[in-house]
Amino acid sequence: MSRLTEPCAESLTKQDFERLSHFRYRLRCFLRQSEDICRDHGLTPLQYQLLLHLKGFTGREWASVGELAERLQAKHHGTVALVGRCEEAGLVERRPGRADRRRMEVHLLARGADLAERIAALHQPELRHLQEEFSLPGWEGEP
């Protein structure tokens, strides 16, 4: 049994399936375009997502590996490996935590911040298109 409560399939209408199909299609178009943009800049989509989450982390300029794993919806050990690859590429660095020296903070380096900004800017036209098509909370203004 899944984590989600499973509704009765008979309660879904054709329109429900059409809406879900269209949403998944538009989401996949956005993701495919994002993947192409990332690769054009020498990053994997996961590397870009890591940089994006660091740049956009609420309230501070760094995140722990555990926080990044949650944002990426990835396993802790996979996130550690991803951070290591980004560190080797000169995009991020790990620093001992200020409050707890056992906890590592992952910080963006200048090269990582620059790539995150350039790639995010290239996502804006497609994001605007999604904004026009779908009404989502917090999307009242320009992306």
Note the main attributes of this structure.
three-stranded antiparallel beta sheet; 58% helix; 143 residues; mainly alpha
What's the helix and strand layout?
Blueprint (H helix, E strand, L loop, with lengths): L13 H27 L4 H11 L6 E3 H8 L3 H13 L3 E5 L7 E5 L1 H24 L10
Helix pairs in contact: 1-5, 2-5, 3-4
**Low-pLDDT residue intervals, each spanning 5 or more residues:** none
Task: Give the overall shape, derived from the CA principal axes.
Answer: globular
Overall pLDDT confidence: 89
Number of helices: 5
H/E element order: HHEHHEEH
Give the fraction of residues assigned to helices.
55-70%
Q: What structural class should be given to the helix and strand makeup?
A: mainly alpha
Q: Care to count the β-strands? A: 3
Radius of gyration: 18 Å
Give an overview in words.
This protein has 5 helices and 3 strands, in the order ααβααββα. It has a 3-stranded antiparallel sheet. It starts with 13 loop residues before the first helix and ends in a 10-residue tail after the last helix. By secondary structure, the chain is mainly alpha-helical. A hairpin with a 7-residue loop joins strand 2 and strand 3. Helix 2 packs across helix 5.
